[in-house]
Write a structure and sequence with these properties.
It holds the Pfam family DUF6124. By secondary structure, this protein is mainly alpha-helical. The protein has a domain at 60-124. The chain has four helices and no strands. Helix 2 (60-84) packs antiparallel against helix 3. The longest helix is centred in the last third of the chain and has 27 residues, at 88-114. The radius of gyration is 32 Å and the shape is elongated.
Length: 131
């Protein structure tokens, strides 16, 4: 005797893959959905003879902060080199260290200016964030 229970899950007895044609139809539908609703991929910009590039999503402030750190490193390397060499090479290494220090001061000044509300607003307008 069969007893009907109210707890039995309701399922569709027909499989979506009853035959080969239904599988092909499902795969075709998946390809169509992937084609039309996939996230848009940004095309890579062509670079002509350029070995390195900077991601366009990086903010100006982040770029300047990285430039400041790189200049600090260049200055330290040049100052260390100046201690190891004598004569005209010593003067050249010291000059490189001092030039890097000067450029780093300029970058730090720009970073300080970016913290002012007026400069931040002007930069945002320039980068197209505000109208």
């Amino acid at each position: 005797m069969l007893k009907v229970t109210s707890y039995a899950p309701e399922t569709d007895p027909a499989s979506p893959y009853e035959n080969l044609d239904s599988r092909r139809l499902h795969k075709a539908a998946e390809r169509a959905l992937d084609h039309y609703f996939a996230p848009a991929k940004k095309p890579f910009a062509e670079r002509f003879g350029q070995l390195f590039s900077v991601c366009p999503e990086i903010t100006t402030e982040a770029l300047l902060a990285n430039a400041s750190e790189d200049l600090r490193s260049i200055s330290a390397i040049a100052a260390d080199l100046a201690d190891d060499v004598d004569g005209p090479h010593h003067s050249i290494a010291l000059a490189l260290s001092r030039m890097a220090d000067g450029v780093q001061l300029m970058v730090e000044r720009v970073l300080d200016d970016l913290e002012t509300p007026e400069m931040a607003m002007a930069l945002a307008r320039q980068q197209g964030r505000l109208d």
